Structure formats: structure tokens, C-alpha cells
Amino acid sequence: MAHRLTQISTRTGDDGTTGLGDGQRVPKDHLRVQAMGDVDELNSQLGVLLAEPLPADVRELLVVIQHELFNLGGELSIPGYTLLKTEAVLRLDEALAHYNAQLPRLQEFILPAGTRSAALAHVARTIARRAERAVVALAAAEAINEAPRHYLNRLSDLLFVLARVLNRANLDGLGGDDVYWHSERLERAQG
After folding, report:
1. Which domains does the chain have, with CATH numbers?
2. Pairwise CA distance, residues 106 & 50, whole Å
3. 3-state SS assignment for residue 99
4. What is the CA radius of gyration of the chain?
5. 9: burial class by Cβ within 10 Å (0-12, 13-18, 19+)?
6. Name one Pfam family in it (predicted).
7. Residue-by-residue pLDDT tens, the chain, 191 positions
8. Which helix (DSSP H) or strand (DSSP E) does residue 127 occupy?
9. Beta partners for 27?
10. Between β-strands 17-19 and 25-27, what pairing exists: parallel, antiparallel or unpaired?
11. CA distance readout (Å), 127 to 32, 71, 121
């Protein structure tokens, strides 16, 4: 791996390029840089979510996910390098099964709403989907490992499920259940 940053204001990006972990410089709008940026934004959004009151098990899981996202970003920053392990994807699969088992079946689409923590989890979910699209676009242009794409796909699903869990945890007293979308078409059919 390349050297660690010792200063932040390097001015080396003033020409519109940025350095990858292997030392090569690429344009700041390069697909790899876009994917790295979306993963970084996702990790930052999870940091905001972690500033909220959360059930201890959800907090512990999100902290692990932040570290795994940092690994994913590191892998994306070094072409041909593997840092995110397949065990990370399996951990998300296990968490999905665990939390889904606690929830009632969905009756209708839900809105990204409810408690503040649930709403923040939904924002993170949408960023995870964007990061996944960026990784898919990168994979169409360059060879990358499958684990980053699989991880982001599972993570977006997990964040949806965790939003439902957080609404039920109701730690801010403003939630308690999913906020269902009211389909005018469905209401007319039932009315």
C-alpha cells in the first residue's frame, strides 16, 4: 500500500487530478474516484446515523460496517488490490436474516420516514445504491473484484431493514412503525 497522508492540504489536486493508492494520478471525475467518493459519503452518512440514539446491537453492527466501508474504499483506491473480504458480505447476509426475522411482512411500500434514526438510515440506503451504481459503472470499464458490488447491494438492503428496526425501536418517541405510502390507485380499488 502507498504512504499514509501526513498533511491534508497538498495542492497536488489543483490540476483536476487526484492520486490513487498505487501512486498513479487520474482525473477527479474518473469512474474509480466517483466510486470512492460515493463510498466515502456513505461512510460519513453512517457516522451521522451513529450520532443518534441506537439499539446497542445496531450501533455495534454499524461500527463494523464503517470499518468495512473504509476497506472497500481502500480497495477501490488501488487498482487490482483486494481488501474487502467475502466474510464481510456474509456478515451482511447474516444481519439481514437476523433483523428481517424480527419484522412483520410489508403490506405496502413504505416512505423513508418515521424516527430521525430511521430517516437517516434511509438516506444512507440511497447513498449505498448510488455507490453500488458507481461500482457497477467502474466494473464495466475496468476489472474489479465482485465483493464491493455484492457488499453495497447487501448493505443497501440491510439499511432498509434497519430503518424499519429503528422505527420500531422508537428511541426518540416519534416513530413506532413503518410509514406506509398511500397509493391513490390502491385506495380507489379498495373503495
Report:
1. 27-184 (1.20.1200.10)
2. 26
3. helix
4. 19
5. exposed
6. Cob_adeno_trans
7. 455 555 555 665 566 777 778 888 876 778 999 999 999 999 999 999 999 999 999 999 999 999 999 999 999 999 999 999 999 999 999 999 999 999 999 888 888 888 999 999 999 999 999 999 999 999 999 999 999 999 999 999 999 999 999 999 988 776 678 888 876 655 656 66
8. helix 116-141
9. 17
10. antiparallel
11. 16, 17, 10
Residue with cell 429503528: 166
Instruction: Quote the cell numbers at residue 100.
Output: 428481517
Cell of 52: 443518534
CA angle (58 as vertex; 109, 120 as ends), nearest 5 = 50
Nearest Cα to Cα of residue 72 among 83, 61, 80, 64: 83
C-alpha cell at 82: 483486494
H-type helices in 27-55, by residue range?
Answer: 31-50
d(CA 132, CA 28): 19
What's the pTM value of the predicted model, to 2 decimals? 0.87
List 180's β-bridge partners, or say none. Answer: 110
* Cell numbers for 32: 474509480
- Quick one: cell of 89? 458480505
